[in-house]
Amino acid sequence: MFGVLMITLLLTVLLVGSNMDIILKQGISYQVRAEITESPTIAKSFATVEEFDQFVQEQIDQRMKALGLDTPWYSPQRIGFTMYKILILDFGNATFLTSDSGSSNVGDILLEKIPRTVLLFTTATIIISIIGIFLGALAGSKVGSIVDRITSAFAVISSSFPVWWVGMLMIFMFAFTYHIFPARATPTILPTEPDYILALLYHMTLPLITIVMIGFGTWAYLVRNFMVGTLQEDFITAKKAIGINKKKIIYKHALKNAAPPIITILALSLSGSLGGAIITEAVFDWPGMGRLYFEAISVMDLPIIIGATYVLTVLFLISIFVADLLYGYFDPRVKTE
Amino acid sequence: MSAVSSSEIWQEFAKSKVGLVGIGILASLIILSAVAVITIPIDTFKQWNNPGKWISYPKTSVPIWINYFMTEKIPEHLILDNPSAITKDDIISLTSHQFGVQYYYDDFPSDFIYEFSVEYSGSQLLQISVIRPDQSQILLLSRSLPHSDTNIIHHERIFSTDNTIKKNIQIHFSEMGFYNQSTSSEDMIFANKDGQVLKGDYLFLLNIYGVEEKVKIIDSRLILGGKAFGMMGTDELRRDLAVGLLWGTPLALFIGISVAVGSVTAGLIYGVYAGFKGKKTDEAMMRFNDVIYALPALPFLIILAVTISNSIFLLVGFLMIFSWVGIAKVSRSMALQIKTRQYVEASQMMGQKNSKIIFKHIIPQLLPYAFASIAISVPAAITTEAGISFLGLGDPTFPTWGQILHDAFTYGAAARGMWWWIAPPGIMIAITGLAFVFIGNALDAIVNPKLKK
User: Fold this and answer.
1) B330 touches chain A (CB under 8 A)
2) Which has more pLDDT, B260 or A325?
């Protein structure tokens, strides 16, 4: 698992490395020139333009050597160094973007954005999974019934709509045609004011409804399919024959047996939700991880791209690990193997 | 599962209503793409981002069919380019173009533009006049074209805001006694005494008089500005959305199908090979699979699009990188089962080549599953591409549905109530997705009979 993490990190560094190099080099030559223009005495001490240019070039080369930029960006030392720094969670400073409080430390920025994404997307994922599990169990227990057909049809139809497009339609309907919810999801009042939480919840409603609406169908469909499989097993028939309450069979016995795959999906989608949805956050103007990612990519703010990718991958791998452990707990057959 | 033969699949498939609906939608989409490719020249869609191409189209106008639902008819944007031409050769020659307009809308046109190019020599006089439904004739403009001794081609656009036109209208309507200073020229022309729209047939006359008869009008069209245009309306940049939507169909199908076929084929072969080889090869290949699986797909796609290239063909390749993983896992486990069958062991014993065993004995068994996965993975590819385009990172030379939505979002279509700009591209994405989901589900139910009960 650690290997997977390292390879992911290496790929990210490799992808953005050459750009990072160019930006750093430009930064240095800009810095040197700025320092020289600030102190006119240096410029005056040269007789010819060539001499002056040579001096500037020397200065630039010196600094590049000091920072280790003279070796190409793909040299093993430099990549190794970058990866080592990331491993000890030192992401450095962002090039352009800052957090709301003005800090440009990547760690600070990430810590500021993650709670917001958790607030919206993780809440949505939890709501989706609860609705999905119960609806799916209901539909799975009555295959071919109206509930089952509606759930399946809804799942199929909702899964083919892009969430962000539905978001645009929702904004169009509820923000501009009927003026019920605000169009921008960022609250207009400052976090220090007492009504801030209410305002935040109010602004959160529209994106939350949209995400839940599009998401729960697929969940219900998945759970339904697991349930259909489980309900055909012999022990369920046996329990029915004994005369145990049907509801009890469905929610206690069948659902528990269908739990392992459901838990795996839940763990993965919870960790996936931490990354936010880049496009959905762009549509609703929600200031979370997804938007941070997009902004960072559009201005090529590389420390943030690398840091965010790293954090997300770590979380994803942790959740795979946790899901594996839980799988073993709910399905002891896996453990004994 | 593996016992299903291909003819059985077709029989089963024909029974599934959902599957047939899916095939039906897909067929109509293919017909639509064929229509797009045949009727709309490739030039048009290459000019998608060239504002000059769309100059004679109206800005943000609603689709024309909206008039069927409205009690007040919204004026259509009319581009009249085949006038009836009359020529008289006398001492004074006359070349006349006549544009008939049936104006039955409940609002005034926003403007009118006469655009022409004429080949002549000597001095020519251009006169524009209009005959209104009440039979009154208004002289709008009388202007001499620039003098030239040699044969030249003169190109000009005359706008309704022209001062001469305004003056002539003032003269005409002051005589009739209902001139209103603040009303624009086009409103006066189409108004009755009470300032309402005068409905009826209008005739615009464009006469060119000259003493020498060598006058040839090469191009001549009258544009009557309106607020409704085409089947799908137009956007902020005056582009005809019908063209964009039509051309989006073959592009979406191309992206979806090529990504799905490519990634399923790659995943299938990869998985089967890993499963068949087993041991260390299997272990190594599956670890590599895990790495790709753990990569956050959309962020990586965005990084790739930004740093490498946003060409549509490369994007297809990038999408493939991230979508073969799941298929590889499943086909590996299937290959592990099939590997232990006796006929595979027998052919191994007989010294068949590994490649032959894989392609002849194992992969054919997995084909039904592969087809189902191809159909199921098409919608994801289409929505992902649309998402990348929506972020403005798509290929700018091809107008995909995602890009239309991107433009809609940047120009604030939602805030301005321009539903015809937002809704159709999304609906097209959804319909295309649905077609493949339907087909996929029908196939899936055949391949995994357990789900059906």
Assistant:
1) no
2) B260
DSSP H helix total and E strand total for chain A: 16, 0
Quick one: tokens of B48? 């998608």
Q: How far apart are CA B259 and CA B381, in angstroms?
A: 7
Interface of B with A in 372-431 (CB under 8 A): 379, 383, 386-387, 390-391, 405, 408-409, 413-415, 417, 419, 422-423, 425-426, 429-430
Average pLDDT, chain B: 83
User: Measured between beta carbons, which residues in chain B are less than 8 angstroms from residue A177?
Assistant: 417
Residue A335 pLDDT > 70: no
At residue A337 the predicted structure's pLDDT band, cuts being 50, 70 and 90, is very low
Specify the range with the lowest mean pLDDT, choosing from A78-82, A213-217, B236-240, B404-408: A78-82
ipTM (interface pTM): 0.79
Q: How far apart are CA A9 and CA A311, in angstroms?
A: 10
Model confidence at A68, pLDDT cuts 50, 70, 90, reads low
175-194 in chain A: CB under 8 A from chain B: 175-177, 183
Are residues B141 and B127 in contact, defined by beta-carbon separation less than 8 angstroms?
Answer: yes
A17 touches chain B (CB under 8 A): no
pTM: 0.81
Q: Residue B143 forms beta bridges with which residues? A: B126
Q: For residue B369, what are the CA distances in angstroms to A182, B3, B130? A: 46, 12, 69
Residues whose CB falls within 8 Å of the CB of residue B407, separated by 6 or more in sequence, listed in order: B235, B236, B237, B421
Dihedrals φ, ψ of B230, to 5°?
65, 180
B63 part of contact set with chain A, CB < 8 Å:
no
Partners of residue A16 in chain B, C-beta under 8 Å: 303, 307
Considering only CB atoms, A162 lies closest to which of B387, B391, B419, namely B387
Residue A284 to residue B347: CA distance in whole angstroms: 59
Indicate the pairing of strand B93-103 with strand B200-210. Answer: antiparallel
Which positions ≥6 away from A19 have C-beta within 8 Å? A300, A302, B307
